[in-house]
Design a protein that fits this description.
The protein has 385 residues and is of the alpha/beta class. The protein has a domain at 125-224 and 231-257. It has helices at 10-24, 40-46, 51-56, 58-76, 93-97, 123-128, 138-158, 172-180, 182-191, 193-218, 237-243, 245-255, 272-278, 292-299, 319-333, 353-366, 379-383, and strands at 85-86, 102-103, 115-116, 163-164, 224-228, 259-264, 283-286, 304-307, 339-340. Strand 6, helix 13 and strand 7 form a beta-alpha-beta unit. The model has no long low-confidence stretch (mean pLDDT 96).
């Protein structure tokens, strides 16, 4: 296993943590904090492992994540403040919980991301979908057995390094998108609203059952809840209020008494008042499709948010485009604190590491507090955005 001495990095991690705490208190530190959302698949690519090796071998998964932590602390130098690893299954939780066919990367397709074969194709499939009992469900039990094997592997090699990995589905709208595919999801919301509410209620019951099961087997207490709900952002406001809001709000009220977070790679700029006044979020992860001017205007001082930088510019050969994307986010979002710079959504496998490093370095340069107009090379063009 890759050796890892956490003590070497404690001072740096503490500096990063204090910078982030300032943002969470809506205060300005020395500069805008930067947390780049890179994960195991990205690390696997840059360290020479395939996704087949990463997802199918716990030893490789752990090795890759440890290397990734050191890579960020030593080379990328963003503001990583939490050190830990997790059992990574990709986006297939719904497939495990509802016994879908799951396609995993293998020797023939080593770079294929894990994906679910949709199982809801007829209205009758909604009736046949059963809310699982986590205590007797074969797939759920096997997942937690695998998690325990991973925990043991971590403990044997790295002591008490934190390990994450609870099994949970997405909130109802996005979980339905996994089980039936996006096209069918949006079409059936219009054509069969009553049947879709029936499906969403089953998915809500399942979410609750899985969450309570996790608390029971770990002894953890409810109080903090983050929801990843990309599919819901493509609904109009009217449809969002009808099909997403009631379910998400009940989940927040049940499990998020102290802290609430929302991740949406899709639009949230048309529901900002819901995020502030109804969900009462503490934190929002903002996707690339949002207008940063609206997000900053409506969330500033109320909800800490990160993201929105368009990772696609990192695939171009234009450093000017990268600079403009960074400047746009920092100019509108950073003043006054409460903003953490990041790409919108996950930074995907294939983004050149050297471009990512340039992004971090330039964000540090432009994002020094207090934010000054003279630090922006492309301000005239940004103001025309």
């Amino acid at each position: 296993m890759e050796p890892f001495n956490l003590d070497k990095y404690r001072r740096l991690i503490e500096e990063n943590r204090k910078r982030l705490e300032k943002a969470y208190d809506f205060e300005e530190a020395d500069r805008v904090p930067i947390i780049i959302d890179v994960g195991g698949p990205y690390y696997a690519k840059i360290f020479g492992y395939t996704l087949a090796e990463y997802y199918n071998n716990l030893g490789v998964m752990l090795e890759v994540q440890i290397k990734g932590i050191k890579w960020r602390l030593r080379w990328l130098k963003d503001d990583l403040a939490h050190i830990g690893v997790q059992l990574d299954i990709g986006s297939i939780a719904e497939g495990i919980v509802f016994n879908c066919d799951i396609v995993m990367p293998d020797e023939r397709n080593p770079w294929q991301s894990p994906w679910i074969v949709p199982r809801i194709k007829r209205l009758e499939d909604i009736d046949e979908l059963e809310v699982p009992d986590p205590y007797s469900h074969k797939g759920i039990k096997e997942y937690y057995r695998r998690l325990e094997r991973f925990r043991k592997l971590v403990k044997d090699n790295y002591g008490n390094l934190p390990v994450g990995g609870r099994l949970q589905i997405h909130p109802p709208v996005s979980a339905a998108g996994s089980l039936m595919g996006p096209r069918r999801l949006y079409t059936w919301i219009y054509k069969y609203p009553n049947e879709m509410h029936k499906l969403f209620r089953k998915l809500e019951e399942t979410f609750i059952a899985l969450q309570e099961f996790y608390y029971d087997i770990t002894g953890a207490e409810p109080g903090s809840l983050g929801l990843p709900d990309d599919h819901a952002g493509y609904l109009s406001r009217k449809l969002y209020e009808k099909f997403a809001l009631p379910y998400n709000l009940r989940l927040y009220e049940l499990f998020g008494k102290r802290y609430r977070a929302l991740h949406m790679d899709s639009h949230m700029d048309h529901i900002t008042d819901i995020l502030v006044n109804v969900y009462r979020l503490n934190f929002a992860d903002v996707g690339v499709e949002n207008d940063i001017r609206i997000i900053s205007r409506d969330l500033k001082g109320k909800i800490v948010f990160k993201g929105n930088a368009n990772w696609r510019v990192l695939l171009s050969n234009s450093y000017e485009k990268i600079e403009m994307e960074i400047e746009k986010c920092i100019y509108y979002a950073a003043p006054g604190g409460g903003y953490i710079f990041d790409n919108g959504g996950e930074t995907y496998t294939g983004v050149p590491p050297e471009k990512l490093k340039y992004e971090v370095e330039y964000a540090k340069k432009v994002g020094k507090y207090p934010i000054r107009k003279e630090n922006f090379k492309h301000l005239d063009r940004i103001l025309k955005y």
